[in-house]
Amino acid sequence: MGDTTNRVALVTGGSRGIGRATVHALARDGFDVAFCYRSDDESARTLEKETAELGVRVTGSRVDVADAESVRAWISATEEEFGQIDAAVTAAGITRDNPLVLMEDEQWHQVIDTNLDGVYHVCRSVVFGMMKRRSGAIVNISSVAGVYGHGTQTNYSASKAGIIGFSRALAKETGRSGIRVNAVAPGFIETDMVAAMNDKARKEALSSIPLRRMGTAEEVADLVAYLVSDRAAYITGAVLQIDGGITI
Ligand code: NAP
């Protein structure tokens, strides 16, 4: 998308971290943005205020992406309010780490329901409008864990690998309708999700990253903004790693 005036983007998990930085980046690029989040009302209201200064419409709604009916209702209200959805970015995600031998069913299902079903619910709802307009860009946030696997994260790694298969299949299915679908696979990014790491784990992680630092949410958001733009018009079905070289 070159001129993004009146273009509309949907972002899940917009209240914090990578989703929040993505809302900022897309608003900066001229998109009106509808974002959702699970619980952090305060951050959502602050984000609305910050981005309003950019002269675009930004609205945040409390929607659990694991709940199909809530997602459908949110997306149809957004299409009604904004007219259409040109781009969708699925950044909502959680971790519930445990070695498999200790994994509780609830931990498994929470992660799959949010990370993988959440992507299905959003894409299922936006794709029809995009097909009708023969235009659209979807970016699903995966993880290097979905490419290589992380110990104690069988649930998370499975959900993120699922996102990659899903995105590639959808890219094949909808390319002829003018829709591009890509996945972004970040390594360690400085957000609340990695803030819980203890010093030892952080040190170990840093020593295995050739660039010797974690990435920022803004760096991931810039890649996402590029992927939804016309500059990436010939990119679909790609899995772009942004990981400081950790997977080399
Ligand atoms: P974060 O800082 O923990 O933020 C997660 C966001 O997702 C929050 O806005 C949260 O809303 C929202 N969310 C969580 N569950 C939700 C649900 N059921 N429905 C709607 N929104 C929900 O996470 P992050 O680090 O930015 O991660 C963003 C994405 O990147 C995730 O998919 C994650 O797996 C992926 N990723 C992150 C890293 C990393 O190192 N940080 C690496 C690879 C991949 P509330 O604030 O309201 O709870």
Question: How would you sum up this structure, described in words?
Answer:
The protein is α/β, with parallel strands linked by helices and about 250 residues long. Helix content is about 50%, strand content about 15%. It is built from 9 helices and 7 strands. Strands 3-2-1-4-5-6-7 form a 7-stranded parallel beta sheet, with helices on both faces. Helix 2 links the parallel strand 2 and strand 3. The longest helix has 29 residues. It is globular and about 50 Å long. The two termini are about 30 Å apart. The mean pLDDT is about 95. The structure holds NADP nicotinamide-adenine-dinucleotide phosphate. The site of NADP nicotinamide-adenine-dinucleotide phosphate has 31 residues, from helix 1, strand 2 and helix 7.
* Uncertain spans: none
Number of strands: 7
Estimate the global geometry from the Cα principal axes. globular
Mean pLDDT metric: 96
- Approximate strand percentage: 15-25%
Give me the number of helical elements: 9
Provide the succession of SSEs: EHEHEHEHEHHEHHHE
Termini separation comes to 32 Å
In the sheet with the most strands, the strands line up as 3-2-1-4-5-6-7
Radius of gyration: 17 Å
